[in-house]
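Project standup — Tuesday

K.O.: blocked on the structure for the chain from last sprint. Re-posting the sequence here as requested.
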Amino acid sequence: MQLQTAERQKVKLRLNIASPSGFGKSYSALLIAYGICPDWAKIAVIDTENGSASLYAHLGHFKTIRLDPPYTPDRYIQAIKICEQAGIEIIIVDSITHVWQGSGGILEYQNSLGGRYQDWAKATPLYQKWLNAILQSQCHIITTNRKKQSYNMITDGNKTRVEKAGLDDEIRGGYEYEMTIALEIINDKHLAKSSKDRTGLFTDKPEFIITVETGKKIIDWCNSGMPISDRVKNNMDLSEQLLTRIESCKSVSELIKLYQDYPQYQEPLLSHFTTRKLLLESKSIIQPKNFSKNGTSVNTTNHRSG
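H.V.: unblocked you, prediction finished:
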């Protein structure tokens, strides 16, 4: 356990698009995906919507996995792993509504146990396992979910009336808070707005139509942080990882880049960087140099005028 200076790292996108059926969730997800990765072969759709993703095959040769009932969490997880193993960069899960309330989904499973409150003790871990597969994937992931009209029962004296009360997400409450960005397509004109945005790209901005440029803006933000460190990937101390990487550097230029990428470790690991640099230079029969604190090099040999 260490106290460290906070620094934003490169991230893998977690984005959700929600709307009623027919408002353009699938099409919008594909446009964003192509803006992030302009190679259709690296984009895959896990399709629970009766093969509807194939309606957009004219956009490009993206991959699809058709997921039919039962929509169990494990079948979603298996599809995600297939995409990861195939080298896919962006996974679109269209849609996640089925894992919640589709045939074989979480609600059906909880009801099969008796539908009691205590039955969530068995159902919730399955949902969390599914959610973790999304959050922990090394791919960018875009999910979609349906929204439906909700109603309130209003009692006035002896009379009861029903009133519309906005749209509810057809997924477990709180899902959007796990996302980097949550977008809603609000009408059949395909106008979108953000309901959750950690990037600041869409917060307090006017409604907009999702395009390929939307994806380009998002990937620029994702890549604007520090590179993802081995400490994050392997849950190991970064300084130990850097020592290994220092020893594996094959050239002075590679070593200098590593030194400049981690300014917070320049001073504590300076002797290791310098030792490796001297060794690389001796192998190249180049005059040895030392690192300076600004990441440049200075000669260590004495010069005489004369």
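K.O.: great, moving the ticket to review. The first helix runs from residue 25 to 36. The chain has ten helices and eleven strands.
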